[in-house]
Every structure is written in C-alpha cells, then in structure tokens.
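Subject: sequence -> structure tokens, single chain

Hey, anyone have a minute? Need the predicted structure for the following. Not urgent.
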Amino acid sequence: MVAFIASLIVTGLLIGGVRRVAKRRAPGTPLTWGEGIVAAIYAFALQLMLYGVVPDRWLRWADNDLQWRTDKLGIPTGPLPFKHHLVFADGITFFGRGKIVVNAQILRDIIVATIYIVFLVGQLAFWIWWQRRGKRSETPELETSAYGRPLVRGTA
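Reply:
Had a minute. Here:
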C-alpha cells in the first residue's frame, strides 16, 4: 500500500511541476537544446509513472497484500477494516436462471483498467490545456449603445 500511495504522490508532484512551468513560461518561447532534453526526460519520467509504475504498484498491492486472486470467489470489499468480507461469494444469480461467478482478480483488473483510462483522459485534457494556455478569446467586443444593444455600422 505504501508503494502505491508513494507512486501516486510522485506522479502528482511531476504533474504539479509541469503546471508550474506552464504558468511561468510564456507560450511560443523557443527552447534551447538543453531545455528540450530536460523536457523530454521529464516527459518520459511522467509517462513512465502514469502508465508503468502506478498500475504496477496497484497490481502488486492487490495480488500480495489484499490477495485478490482467482481463488477468492466474490467481490472483496477492499482495504477496509473488514477486508476479508466478500460480497456475492456464491455468485450473482438471475432469478434462478443462471449464475455469474465473480472472483477478486476481475475486480483488480477492472480497477487497473480504470486507472489507465483516467490517466489517458487526463493526459488528453492536459494536452488541450497546454495548447490553449495564453490564448484569449478571439471574439471582438462590439460597441454598444446607451441601451446595451450592439451598434449597427453602415456600409456607406
């Protein structure tokens, strides 16, 4: 659990560093070779944390400490005080017409897939924010009359 939380904290610090640089650096400022290399290494480290270390730490925690394996039938309640409690330990039945057997590894895999999806959507949103930083709205302000209506200009 400590490794998973620590990986989330390191990832948050790396994201905070990118936001800090984005706020301080003017858009369109050219990069030097050194700045480009440092930025590339930083981006690689962030991607490694997002898509490599954080999901791996979750899988290791779920497999080892929580013991969410295929032999544990039912949906575990997780790292709560009653962590050995299982919901639907006998399977989910549908009015006597069949049963779906759920094990803990399925929940583990759903959570790691959700981690990947959240990081991917967050990365796309971050890219859009980065590209739009420093831009103002391009709608020109219209002159208004004393009554607040836009003035119409003649084509004379």
